[in-house]
Write a structure and sequence with these properties.
Two copies of one chain form a homodimer. By secondary structure, the first copy, chain A, is an alpha/beta fold. Chain A has helices spanning 3-9, 11-23, 36-39, 43-54, 93-102, 104-110, 112-128, 130-141, 145-171, 217-225, 240-255, 275-279, 293-302, 326-338, 367-381, 385-392, 398-406, 443-446, 463-477, 489-502, 541-545; strands at residues 69-70, 85-86, 177-182, 189-199, 202-206, 229-233, 263-265, 284-290, 307-311, 317-320, 350-354, 412-415, 419-420, 430-431, 434-439, 454-460, 482-485, 506-508, 548-556. A seven-stranded mixed β-sheet of chain A has the order 12-15-16-11-10-17-18, sandwiched between helices. Strand 18 of chain A pairs parallel with strand 19 (548-556) of chain B. Chains A, B: It holds the Pfam family Aldedh.
Chain lengths: 557, 557
């Protein structure tokens, strides 16, 4: 098969994506249910076996310039992974980057449709391994299985396809050739012009621990499809999902006749600090980063030879003003706070509630009753340990536990965090969310990100102050998500205007099966690029447009 | 009139531009001929009178936070200008930037069509003052009148319209609202979503001396139409064209009911160094710069809170391998080297010619004969002083003269530069191009930009070496333009490939009325963003996409 064959084979899927990014209606190319009715009776077991076959082995992926191997993963589930990967060090970067660049000319010459065909085929192959990937995501990130399958598999594939669709549309804004004919005295002046899409150079993708695929794939595929080579530097604690990804990329590139080193894995020993020297190499022209604000800002300020796309941290907020569905409000927020133990970059941290309470369909609720209502919903949702662990997953690293243990000091505990023993993985570290009531004046506490299962119920003077604190905290600390509950159109209007001004997406009165911490590919933007939490979004034109340049030639005809 | 009225009024012009940026065929919305048959019998005289009315006066434009006035222009024609402008200093930036931001919310609320209508109306009003602008450009930049009318007026308007068209298309990639309907057990999940285009903040436009309008307008209008406020910091030697621009922007904004401080003029005293503190202000989110490489790089590396679009300097090259029209080759290059005394960022600096000479329609020509042919064409083109000055214009500043006077030392003079006394402006400094033959090994000379009427005929071992030197010099020093003359398809292919790899647009065998230093709006990209001479291009998707963000809200329906 060639890239253009694959382009034809995946044309319908691409067309669906292209239509969806224009309408921003519902679209999904990869079924999100891991049910055997969708994926077949043996898919789950086969995927699990494929995952388990990696354990204790050396992953068969070659990295130019690598030196020995590393084995750095420590599963939040306590499962010994012990997979070895080629180790990249600063000393190997010359060789790695030279190898990465080598295939770029042929990759450019392949043309737009070939590159889109190859990348769509990669997604298709990744989809065939989605259960294996789900296991890899689960046991590195600590996500529960269904979430790992969805966020780490099906939804990540949708996000990757979305990035490819945007890039395809962007590259096609320019004709491959044009005739320019200028009226002139006598004959018109005629010129033939050619326009070629050319990648920028080497793209670096820096993965994170919590969402190794979902957060890495949009940048990886946006860069690859636009003609760049991609070096993937995974988080040392979540290598396997990206090793599989790189493996599949290299397999498909090779089949299509391209240099497999167009996509490489650069695994490191923790403490090697490989990202900094890699990010500042002159060959590196694009960087996609997901992780902490400090290093994200360092990249933005220091890797100035590259276009830098960052998703960092924020202080996500929900303003609670009033509701006509108090129970549904509590249940909806409970799910958000419980999912993956609040370890999503989109989990709500701050719940702004008036000290005087709110109006609801159940009558007035005091400040304490609002907190108690949410706490009660969390309690019910997580009452059964065996079911709770399938929502909570495991705590990704010990720093989360440290923050969680310190957080009760900040105010009055509304709901204590509870340790749960995982029925299947007794070594897993599982915790339920902690809710702490805190005064509005303690902005030095809730104005900073407290990553993990910690949320603050912030006691404000009223909704006006809630909105003002929302503005202040998001302006200073950024936010990936925001929500409002209100029955008043005036309040909703004010909150919408505030959200526009501080640059964060707003979810209004979520009381059903949509949650403030979730974004749907093709329809919801993830992040905005308009506040300090992220300088880019999945996916818009700006996310793809600067990943390539158009080089023209012209001549008389 | 409102913005939407103007949107309707200028719809045809916009539609023409939108079609052209997709086809990249010929389009122009603003006639380039200053002929009275096009613009009317009195237009030229009226425009000159309007320009002259400014001389010795205080320009009636208000700048918040300004303190006193400055008068900094020194015409290359020796004409005393003595126009006073409000002086902006670092102490006034708080007030200036607060005032700039004040109108942004209303400007965003106006919506896409209103902003496009307002900016198109600004172009229309600038077009009505095109002769006044042409005079202002002529007497500040030193361009001759016809060039100032075209490059500084009609073509600049086309480039501005092109930027508006790209921005309009980009903003319209996202629907204003959408209904998202996800299939689910029982009823589908339905959500209403709204998407709002929001500007990034304050945009800073840093103008240059040589093309105050052509190089400033694309960024100015791209930023304004996408919802940003714009602070225009002109070059101290070329303020008037941008003062008129800002004046017209403020006039139209006011008529449409918007805050005129959405566009402000920040004129400075030379030596104030206003650009640095301004560029690093947190309110500034977009910067467009045209000028020297050193400051451009400083901006790229230090104004990391902003998206920075730079056009800097390069070493533009033409490779001469062979030709079937030697006279036309010489005449075409002669025009390029003579126009505006080579003071264009697109003027060819390096002519790579094999030491063994080339094949032509007139038989073999030795290295010296190629140089002599071009020199002879320049001599003829500029033989008549009165006609010569209408091509050459004036030398923009004394630094150009210093470089010109030093350049003969670098090699063997093929054509001496000649001083011409301008018949109408005896104080004008006018010089013809200098041609210096130089050896290929002197890359430390021709590998750097020597801005002004200095070009090098570089003696190479053959076309292979010419192409290799072209690669090396453009990779290291960048280029805005490149050309090749060859009758061999193989050589043309090799040159095209080299141009793609080093990231510069290639003009092939130009022998007629198209010149390597000229780019046509809507069809030719100006700069590529793919080599060190510029990190952006006029205009592509990447030039507009990051000037705004899309902020969404969502709710169940």
């Amino acid at each position: 098969m060639t890239g253009t064959d694959w382009f034809s084979a995946h044309r319908d899927r691409l067309d669906g994506a292209l239509a969806a990014i224009r309408s921003r209606g519902y679209y999904s190319a990869f079924p999100e249910s891991p049910s055997p009715r969708v994926y077949g009776e043996t898919a789950a077991a086969d995927g699990k076996a494929a995952f388990e076959a990696h354990l204790g082995t050396t992953y068969p992926v070659e990295t130019p310039g690598s030196d020995g191997t590393v084995s750095t993963e420590q599963s939040p589930y306590g499962l010994p992974l012990q997979v070895q990967y080629p180790r990249t060090t600063e000393a190997g970067l010359d060789e790695l980057l030279a190898a990465a660049r080598k295939g770029m000319i042929d990759w450019r010459k392949g043309g737009i449709e070939t590159r889109v065909g190859v990348t769509c085929e990669i997604l298709d192959r990744l989809h065939k391994r989605v259960f294996e990937l789900a296991n890899a995501v689960q046991f590195t990130s600590g996500q529960a299985f269904v979430m790992a399958f969805q966020a780490g598999g099906a939804h990540a594939l949708d996000r990757a396809l979305e990035a490819i669709a945007y890039a395809y549309e962007e590259m096609n804004r320019y004709p491959a050739e044009a005739v320019w004919e200028k009226p002139a005295k006598g004959d018109p002046i005629r010129m033939q012009k050619n326009f070629t899409v050319v990648g920028r150079g080497v793209a670096l993708v820096i993965g994170c621990n919590t969402f190794p695929t979902w957060n890495s794939w949009p940048g990886l595929f946006a860069s690859l499809v636009t003609g760049n080579a991609v070096v993937v530097k995974p988080h040392p604690l979540a290598v396997l999902p990206l090793a599989i990804t790189v493996d599949v990329c290299r397999e498909v590139l090779t089949e299509a006749g391209f240099d497999p080193n167009l996509v490489t894995l650069a695994a490191e020993q923790p403490g090697d600090g490989l990202a900094k020297p890699l990010a500042q190499r002159p060959e590196v022209k694009l960087i996609d980063f997901t992780g902490g604000s400090e290093f994200g800002q360092w990249l933005e300020q220091n890797a100035t030879q590259a276009e830098v796309f960052t998703e960092k941290a924020g202080v996500n907020a929900v303003i609670i003003d009033s509701t006509d569905s108090f129970k549904a409000l509590c249940n909806n927020l409970a799910f958000t706070l419980a999912l993956y133990s609040g370890q999503m970059c989109t989990t709500t941290q701050n719940l702004f509630v008036p000290a005087g309470g709110i109006q609801t369909d159940e009558g007035p609720k005091s400040f304490d009753e609002v907190g108690a209502g949410i706490a009660n919903s969390i309690g019910k949702l997580l009452a059964d340990d065996a079911r709770a662990v399938e929502l909570l997953g495991g705590i990704v690293n010990p720093a989360v536990i440290s923050r969680l243990e310190k957080a009760p000091e900040y105010g009055d505990v509304v709901l204590e965090s509870r340790a749960i023993t995982h029925p299947a993985f007794p070594a897993a570290v599982v915790r339920t969310p902690l809710l702490v009531a805190i005064d509005a004046k303690a902005e030095e506490v809730y104005g900073r990100e407290c990553f993990g299962p910690v949320s603050f119920v912030v006691r404000t003077g009223g909704t006006d102050e809630s909105i003002e604190l929302f503005r202040q905290t998001v302006t200073a600390g950024g936010a990936m998500t925001a929500g409002i509950y209100s029955t008043s159109e005036d309040v909703l209007d004010t909150a919408r205007e505030a959200a526009l001004e501080v640059g964060v997406a707003l979810s209004e009165n979520l009381t059903g099966q949509v949650f403030v911490n979730q974004s749907a590919a093709f329809s919801d933007f993830h992040g905005t690029g308009a506040n300090p939490a992220a300088n880019a979004t999945y996916t818009d034109g700006a996310y793809v447009a600067s990943r390539f340049r158009v080089i023209q030639s012209r001549r008389h005809v």
